[in-house]
Amino acid sequence: MTRLPDDFRWPGGRQLAVIFNIAYEAWSDGQAPGIGPMGNVLKPGFFDTNAHSWASFGLTRGIHRLLAIAEKHAVKTSIMVNGVICERDPATVRQLAELGHEVINHSWGMDVIPVYFDEAGERANLRRNHDLLTKTAGVAPTGWISPRGTGSPISSRLLAEAGYLHHGDVNDDDRPYVMDFGG
């Protein structure tokens, strides 16, 4: 691993970079977040209609409001997109890329978390979503952020092998750094 030195500067000698991330997320069919805005988890075996409704706001209204704000202020963002979104709203996914925003691979759904897979399953999820995002957005994603930001112990290596240039599953530095997996 190679970390940037304390005297690192961004292009133009700048000392600070700001990334605007937008989460354009959804859960797989029949799934809902484990907790919703009410803050208390339902007993096991009960579908949380409130959490499901809350989690659907981004697809229904939120993404369009956030895109309008970004456009109003001429800000380009990185937008984390689940594969399931490509099936539910392909026109908006295509619009993200056409407007110049970076489309970030964000797994199939928010309930599809890399740490739960073996290596073959993680590779399959990465490839499935990569291909779907590329087809839908018209550009291949080069960045990844896992749902919850929770990759597996091998996610970084698998992403590098798949040609990804960056991921957002680490929080141990406020600067980017290089992880080397033997080329």
Structure description:
This protein is an alpha/beta fold and 183 residues long. It has one domain (2-178): Glycoside hydrolase/deacetylase (TIM Barrel). The chain contains six helices and seven strands. The protein has a three-stranded parallel sheet with strand order 2-3-4.
Q: What's the short story on this structure?
A:
The protein has 6 helices and 7 strands.
The main sheet comes to: 3 strands, parallel
N to C succession of SSEs: EEHHEHHEHEHEE
**Class based on secondary structure composition and strand pairing:** alpha/beta
Number of strands: 7
**If you compute it from the alpha carbons, what radius of gyration comes out, rounded to the nearest whole angstrom?**
17 Å
The number of helices is 6
Task: Please identify, by name, the CATH architecture.
Answer: Alpha-Beta Barrel
Shape: globular
Helix content: 25-40%
Mean pLDDT: 94
What is the topology, as strand order, of the major beta sheet?
2-3-4
Question: What would CATH call the class?
Answer: Alpha Beta
The CATH superfamily label reads Glycoside hydrolase/deacetylase
User: Uncertain spans, ≥5 residues at pLDDT below 50?
Assistant: none
Beta-strand share of residues: 5-15%
CATH topology: TIM Barrel
Distance between the termini: 12 Å
Lay out the secondary structure:
Elements: E1 2-3, E2 21-24, H1 49-55, H2 57-72, E3 78-81, H3 83-88, H4 90-98, E4 102-105, H5 119-137, E5 143-144, H6 155-161, E6 166-167, E7 177-178
Parallel strand pairs: 2-3, 3-4, 5-6
Antiparallel strand pairs: 1-7
